[in-house]
Amino acid sequence: MNEAFDALPAPFEMAETFSQIHTISWKAAYHDCFPAPYLNGFTPEKRAEIFRRNYGVGEERPFLFRRGGMPKGIAILGPSWECEYPEDIGEICAFYTLPETWGTGFAQDGMRFCLRYFHEQGYQGAILWVLETNRRARRFYEKAGFRPDGIHKEFQLDKTFSELRYYMKL
Questions:
Q1: CB atoms within 10 A of CB 101
Q2: pLDDT by residue (tens digit) across 39-62?
Q3: Which among 66, 119, 125, 137 counts the fewest CB atoms within 10 Å?
Q4: Read out DSSP for 39-58?
Q5: Backbone angles phi, psi at 128, to 5 degrees
Q6: d(C-alpha 170, C-alpha 118), whole Å
Q7: What is the pLDDT of residues 63-106, one digit of tens each?
Q8: Domains present along the chain, CATH in parentheses
Q9: By C-alpha distance, which of 123, 67, 65, 121 is closest to 94?
Q10: pTM
Q11: CA 12 to CA 46: how far, in whole Å?
């Protein structure tokens, strides 16, 4: 039996829970993409500090996804600041679910929530950025209806990494 999915705004007081989910999910998703020193520096304590510092600043909204009342995923949603798109485009700034939920349909429930939220906010489309080498995430987003829009950006760690921008019309 599938336990109920729900999503709620992540209050400031849940910084530790939010950051724990973010860290565990992020490290699992990128374990074969980023160098170990970089992964090791991605800690719940640092994420909680960043969450607290940025909470309530700007228009981005953090959400906590639960299954059976237990926190299992997170999303940060807000308006897109991409100049190539009109103002009515939302952006999924972060989307992570715990590895134990992968392949269970939980992430699809989370994505449906995100898209419904954008629709209710009056957005006409949504974008997100995904690491080019993260094939699992790319398949997930493509299955949800997102497509690469031809824009990419690069950043440097021990080597050059590329992120692809994905878009979906709502």
A1: 18
A2: 999 999 999 999 888 887 888 999
A3: 119
A4: HHT--HHHHHHHHHHHTTSS
A5: -160, 165
A6: 8
A7: 999 999 999 999 999 999 887 777 799 999 999 999 999 999 99
A8: 5-128 (3.40.630.30)
A9: 65
A10: 0.92
A11: 15
